[in-house]
Amino acid sequence: MKRLLRTLAAGAALSAVAAAPAAASHSWNNYHWARTANPFTLQVGDNVLGDWDTHLRTANGDWSASAVMDTPTVPGTSNRRCSMTAGTAQVCNAKYGNNGWLGLASINLSGSHIMQASAKMNDTYFAGATYNNPNEKLHVMCQEIGHTFGLGHTSEDGSSQNTCMDYFSNTGTAATSTTSTHPNQHDYDQLAAIYSHTDSMSTLASSPATSAGMAGRSDARAYRTQRTDRGNHSEIMEHFSDGTTRITDVLWADGPRPTVDRG
To answer: Which region is the signal sequence (predicted)?
Structure first.
């Protein structure tokens, strides 16, 4: 996959599916977990170490305040590569290398239904002075987890909407600012809108979590990959031979890059 991504043209156009949502509606193209009732429970796998565990629990507590979902933290089932697990969102941190990205959120889809998800924080950059502060860590953690629910960004201009789903950066002169480190009411309202219907089946894991990769699994070949760049974010869509799709939102550490190494 690394070789495939490295052959992509930096300006590859992505269809409207990849367009960043407007502030009035930041659903990520209506991607959602299938479930038969609300509120529902999505297990969030804890694969993080050090102070990331505090940020994960804070973010999960915030997101669980939504009226439609509960996101309990459960023991992780994946490894350093943050392998996805069916019906869950796995969250990881590691030194993934000087590959340009600060955070990644990936969702595997069958149609518009999320089958499994992951969120990764790159300690290669978070260990440095620019990003190593609790406000930036919480902002990125909260945002990457938010993507695994089907939320997009609220803005692209770098201003603070006082939500972790905006493009604000808690670095530099803003390193001590706690703005944009938590969801706001608009995020909860958007989740209520995304999950206003129910489905005839569920893609959520029961307890304990099942352990098979259901979409975009290792034996399914990606036959087409598309990418779009927007400011300090990119979106990559991979189409697999089993009919599923993986979409990855990339948060760059210091501006767009022409390639992505997903670790």
So the answer is: 1-18
Helices (H) and strands (E) in the chain, counts: 5, 11
- The three-state secondary structure class of 184 is coil
Q: Where do we find the tokens 């997903």?
A: 262
- Helix, strand, or coil here: 81? coil
User: What CA–CA distance (Å, rounded) separates 252 from 254?
Assistant: 6
Torsions phi, psi for 237 (to 5 deg): -115, 125
How many domains does one find in the chain? 1
Question: What pTM was estimated for this model as a whole?
Answer: 0.86
Label residue 111 exposed, middle or buried (CB < 10 Å: 0-12, 13-18, 19+): exposed
What residue numbers bound the domain in which 80 lies? 2-252
The structure tokens listed for 218 are: 């290792």
In a domain? residue 45: yes
Instruction: For residue 262, tell me if it sits in a domain.
Output: no
Are 174 and 168 in contact, with CB atoms under 8 Å apart? yes
Does residue 178 belong to any structural domain of this protein? yes
**Alpha helices, DSSP H only, in 127-163?**
134-147
State the CATH number of the domain containing residue 234: 3.40.390.10
Please indicate, yes or no, if residue 34 is contained in any of the structural domains: yes
Indicate the Cα dihedral angle 199, 200, 203, 207, nearest 10°.
110
State pLDDT tens for residues 153-194. Answer: 998 888 899 999 999 999 999 999 999 999 999 999 999 999
Q: What angle do CA 60, 65, 66 make, to 5 degrees?
A: 105
CA distances from residue 210 to 92, 116, 145, 184 in whole angstroms, order as listed? 18, 11, 20, 32
131's tokens: 């990003």
